[in-house]
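Moderator note: this is an archived Q&A kept for reference. The question asked for a predicted structure of one protein chain; the sequence and the answer are reproduced below.
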Amino acid sequence: MEQRSTSRGARRRPLHALLPVLALGLAASAAPRAAQDGQGEARSIDELRLTMSKMIETQQIISKERKDWAQGKEILLGRLELVRAEIAGLEQKIAEAQASVDAANAKRDELAAEVGRLQALDGRLKEAATRMEAELRRLLAQVPEPVRTKLDQLIQRIPADPTKTNASAPERFQNVLGILNELNRANTDVAVTYEVRELADGRPAEVRVLYIGLAQAYYVGANGDAGIGRPTAEGWKWEPRREIAKDVLTALEIIQGKHTPAFVPLPVQLQ
């Protein structure tokens, strides 16, 4: 019975006796919590500082990137303007080149038309030169031998086959005109030459020949033989005419200045 009383008295310990114990317990429990709170606050400040540092660094990077981008933009815009100017210049040059090409094409077409016209004209000139050369060959058959000898170099230039000659139409025309000029000069001239002619008895002898242009000739020999020469389609034909010997000698002396000018009757045959 006494022990039960004792345990009840212990359970009913007064409150003021328990306060120091409670205070000590609270202090004991508050000390670790305060330490933990201090450590957490220090850690939070460090993290905040690190975060702020990262934010500042990020802002600086963003600012630098914006500045670099702005500068790069200006450079690109400048280059773009330069490229645009170059493109405009190239477009202008292309337009000028196209205009030059168009002008060159027009000039080419004009020259091609001119070449065609000249080729057609050259063809007509060659046809005309061929006709003139054929007619000239016919005339040369009626030209006296002394005159033909003078023209021999020009006569050799007449192509044997007009379709296979390398001579141009102007060259052929020039050659024809050269021959015609010489023939015209000879046709208005009175010439005296020494030639070998067959006399009436068939003997060859040297005679003096008086050519009156290209239409008539007279010859006389030392022995008094004389004759008349005329052009034909087959060449010159000579006819003995001994009776004109004296008149031919008189005409020759007048030409050589050995006789006073006088009228000399000589037979002429006109065709």
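Archived answer notes: The chain has two domains: 64-187, 189-271.
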